[in-house]
Design a protein that fits this description.
Length: 400
């Protein structure tokens, strides 16, 4: 092999090795979850790739950003390390605490704002620490004066979270400070406190001091959560004392209300029992009145019945008397007279039949036996009959 040919093969080998070595600077394979920023080696022009795949690098400088990231501002105890990234907060009562938590954020998807973000910060760690953390710290700082330490631990805990997130997204609130008097829950004495209030427009919309840098760069944060609020030892003690005092007050109020309810219940029960007794007496009264009315009505009915019976019997008697009188007037009391006449005849006939002395002689002497001859007995009987007929005004003759 000639020397020239050997030199040519050597040159080609070196070129191949150089090409292989530099191939990583010619093309770049972009992952799906990243944004790739390529800066040209000579002109410095930026090319931004939001989609994944093989991209031409042209020996330019490559910078990667995560499309979505989680930022944590946790304390050392939360992370189990010596690094404390929690954020300090000061409340309107002077109490201090450190807040730890986390949230997620996503970078813009348009070239213009991504270029501006890259120009100002140049890397993902710079965005995290110089932009995102700074905005969160400011939002936390501006949220503290809107409540007291105790409020942040209880009734305004949700407001604390929402105020921080809203100010980080849109911008910090415009506020004003006023002084007002209130009662200290521990000492029970009146004190003057400075209260920070939100400034709103005529429509009730909260005004902002400035626009949030996150909103200006098109960075969206979401899913903000707080792990803990670690108060200073003095504040922890005050909060515990306040809570105990409030619990005692609430317990006393509850006991007072319970006693009041018991009194109301006892009074209601007494009224109910009195009403029940009155109702029972009223029922007994009604029962007795009903029984008395029943007896009265029964007696009245009995009296009316007796009166009706008396009237009935009177009418019956008067009717019978009138009927008999009319009958007597019509036939001259013939039936009664005949009855009496028969009874009279029966009585003396019975007396004759029982007499031991014969009224008719067994032997008749002389006379011609004519039918017209009468004995003394016959004469007496005839006289008795006539007397009876006369007494009875009875005409025994057959009327023709």
């Amino acid at each position: 092999m000639s020397t020239q040919r050997k030199i040519m093969l050597g040159f080609l080998g070196v070129a191949l090795v150089a090409l292989i070595a530099l191939s990583g600077s010619v093309f770049e394979n972009v992952d799906a979850g990243r944004i790739c920023v390529i800066q040209a080696p000579v002109s410095g022009e930026l090319t931004i790739h939001f989609d994944q795949g093989l991209k031409y690098q042209g020996f330019g400088r490559v910078t990667y950003y995560k499309k979505e990231s989680e930022y944590s501002f946790s304390s050392a105890s939360d992370k189990g390390s010596r690094l404390d990234e929690s954020i300090s907060i000061r409340f309107n009562d002077g109490g201090k605490a450190r807040i730890s938590g986390s949230f997620r954020y996503e970078l813009p998807r348009d070239i213009e704002r991504m270029q501006e973000l890259h120009f100002k910060y140049g890397s993902q760690p710079a965005v995290d620490q110089e932009l995102v953390r700074t905005v969160i710290e400011k939002a936390v700082y501006m949220t503290g004066p809107l409540m007291s330490s105790k409020q942040s631990s209880s009734e305004k805990r949700n407001d604390l979270l929402s105020f921080i997130e809203d100010q980080a997204k849109v911008g910090v609130y415009k506020t004003k400070v006023i002084e007002q008097k209130e009662i200290d829950p521990l000492s029970g004495k009146e004190k003057t406190v400075a209260i920070t209030q939100l400034v709103t427009d005529d429509g009730g919309v909260i005004l902002r001091q400035d626009q949030s840098p996150l909103e200006r760069f098109g960075i969206n944060i979401y899913n903000l959560s707080l792990n803990q609020i670690k108060y200073d030892e003095t504040i922890e003690k005050q909060i515990a004392e306040q809570q105990n005092a409030i619990m005692r007050v609430q317990t006393a109020i509850a006991e007072a209300r319970e006693a009041e309810q018991n009194a109301i219940k006892a009074e209601a029960e007494g009224k109910a029992q009195a009403a029940l007794a009155r109702a029972e007496m009223e029922v007994e009264k009604v029962r007795e009145v009903t029984q008395a009315e029943k007896k009265r009505d029964v007696a009245k009915l009995a009296t009316e019945s007796a009166e009706y019976y008396k009237r009935e019997q009177t009418l019956i008697g008067e009717g019978d008397a009138a009927r008999k009188r009319l009958a007597a007037q019509a036939n001259g009391s013939l039936e009664q007279k005949l009855e009496a006449y028969i009874q009279v005849q029966k009585n003396w006939a019975d007396a004759f039949s029982k007499s031991q002395q014969p009224f008719v002689p067994s032997v008749v002497m002389g006379g011609n036996g004519a039918a017209g001859s009468n004995s003394s007995a016959q004469t007496w009987m005839q006289m008795m009959m006539l007397q009876a007929a006369k007494d009875l005004s009875l005409d025994t003759k057959v009327q023709k």
